[in-house]
């Protein structure tokens, strides 16, 4: 922005605006008033607002409420914003008026300036760009559109990629048997493939939970205008708008039958965020399992070796750390924190309007972004390339006294416990101690204590 200014007018009077800014007085007042942080709303959200303006202009032209020249110019300007031009024209802080009115007017003013240039007509931010709309319905609708598109286009494909990567790795390690662990202590054996497929199922289940909320996300309050009454909007606006939006996005958006709900509450956003926390919990579990399995390499478990991506210490030469699982764990922690503040924001709808909408938009889209990036990072930079330390796994498995559990049916729990304790104390394989302390044949001992058979993966 330049250091030169121009005067702009709104209903409160005049205000100085940077000379090269496309926005007007209301945006500048918001910039002046809300110097709360260096955070602005994600561009995915701004794109959604621009998309609403595109479809609204098309709708108003179809309903003969807006002339073709102005409608076409607004649509051209909205499409440019949607495609990434003019991204520096949206400076309003996340922590602003709770309805998001400042952001709605920011987009209205930018589009009005551009549309006036393109059409040669006076295009007004309220009378033309915002025709048949209110911040009350635009901002909640933008939250739903941006979240639905991000889930559909980004997160769901990333999760499917992670699931496929885990399944492919599981297929590579079908025959690898390892010591299971409960309470971080030795437990019954399982195959590495069984362990990995548990992760894959966790991710698939989280994805499916999110998918169940997609129809609710795509049921829009647009057309409710102020508080949901639909005042100043054509009765056909909502349905026509959704037709336009569905055609543009190739996603089946619908008009909510009760538009008061999507304006007064943010229950759907809270529900989606809740599912994202479930996904974050699953991804953090996977990340921490990888860290433990990779630990060492000499003094830890050392079951696998993650890809070496960068030096791990500024002072200890040769040290390599599990940086991707650590980054993912931090991203998951952020998502859990986002949900806490988003839940508080979700209940901040006094009577007919939620008044923490920008915070909800910011946190929800950030959580989707973090879970998308984390899924891809886990898949491509950790799971796909790790190698298995078969010698370490076999050594630990051969000394695992918990294998004696398989003898419980024939010698009883108490006798089996004696054998396990002796094997622990003498650091000997369980089969050797069992051979001495029972009268079971060698063949039966080998059959019952075969780790592969104990995995149930015959």
Structure write-up:
With 458 residues, the chain is mainly α. The protein has 19 helices and ten strands. The strands form five sheets. A two-stranded antiparallel ribbon has the order 1-2. A two-stranded antiparallel sheet has the order 3-4. Helix 2 (43-62) packs across helix 9 (237-249). The mean pLDDT is 96.
Order of helices and strands: EEHHHHHHEEHHEHEHHEHEEHEHHHHHH
- The global form is elongated
Given as residue ranges, the uncertain stretches (5+ residues, pLDDT < 50) are none
* Beta-strand residue fraction: 5-15%
| Mean pLDDT metric | 96
The residue fraction in helices comes out at 55-70%
Count of discrete domains: 3
Largest sheet: 2 strands, antiparallel
The N- and C-terminal alpha carbons lie at a distance of 68 Å
The name of the CATH topology of the largest domain is: Fumarase C, Chain A, domain 2
């Amino acid at each position: 922005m330049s250091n030169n200014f121009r005067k702009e007018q709104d209903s409160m009077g005049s205000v100085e605006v940077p000379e090269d800014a496309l926005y007007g007085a209301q945006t500048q007042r918001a910039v002046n008033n809300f110097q709360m942080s260096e955070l602005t709303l994600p561009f995915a959200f701004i794109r959604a607002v621009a998309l609403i303006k595109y479809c609204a202009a098309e709708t108003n032209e179809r309903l003969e409420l807006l002339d073709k020249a102005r409608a076409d110019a607004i649509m051209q300007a909205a499409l440019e914003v949607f495609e990434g031009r003019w991204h520096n024209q949206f400076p309003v802080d996340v922590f602003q008026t709770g309805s998001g009115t400042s952001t709605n007017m920011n987009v209205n003013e930018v589009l009005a300036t551009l549309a006036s240039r393109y059409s040669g007509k006076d295009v007004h931010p309220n009378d033309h760009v915002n025709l048949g709309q209110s911040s009350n319905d635009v901002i909640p609708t933008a939250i739903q559109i941006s979240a639905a598109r991000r889930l559909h286009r980004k997160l769901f494909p990333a999760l499917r990629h992670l699931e496929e990567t885990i399944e492919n790795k599981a297929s590579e390690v079908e025959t690898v048997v390892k010591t299971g662990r409960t309470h971080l202590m030795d437990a019954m054996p399982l195959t590495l493939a069984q362990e990995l497929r548990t992760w894959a199922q966790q991710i698939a289940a989280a994805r499916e939970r999110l998918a169940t909320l997609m129809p609710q996300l795509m049921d829009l309050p647009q057309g409710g205008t102020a508080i949901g009454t639909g005042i100043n909007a054509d009765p056909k606006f909502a349905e026509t708008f959704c037709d336009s939006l569905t055609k543009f996005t190739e996603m089946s958006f619908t008009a909510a039958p009760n538009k008061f709900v999507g304006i007064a509450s943010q229950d759907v956003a809270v529900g989606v965020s809740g599912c994202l926390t479930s996904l974050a919990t699953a991804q953090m579990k996977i990340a921490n399992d990888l860290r433990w399995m990779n630990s060492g390499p000499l003094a830890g478990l050392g079951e696998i070796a993650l890809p070496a991506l960068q030096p791990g210490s500024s002072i200890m030469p040769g040290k390599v750390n599990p940086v991707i699982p650590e980054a993912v764990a931090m991203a998951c922690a952020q998502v859990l924190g986002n949900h806490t503040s988003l839940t508080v924001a979700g209940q901040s709808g006094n009577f007919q309007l939620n008044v923490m909408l920008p915070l909800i938009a910011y946190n929800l889209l950030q959580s989707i972004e973090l879970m998308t990036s984390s899924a891809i990072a886990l898949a491509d930079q950790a799971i796909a390339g790790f190698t298995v330390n078969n010698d370490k796994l076999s050594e630990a498995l051969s000394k695992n006294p918990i294998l004696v559990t398989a003898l419980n049916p024939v010698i009883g729990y108490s006798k089996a416990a004696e054998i396990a304790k002796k094997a622990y104390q003498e650091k000997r394989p369980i089969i050797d101690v069992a051979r001495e302390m029972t009268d079971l044949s060698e063949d039966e001992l080998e059959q019952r204590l075969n780790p592969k058979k104990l995995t149930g993966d015959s």
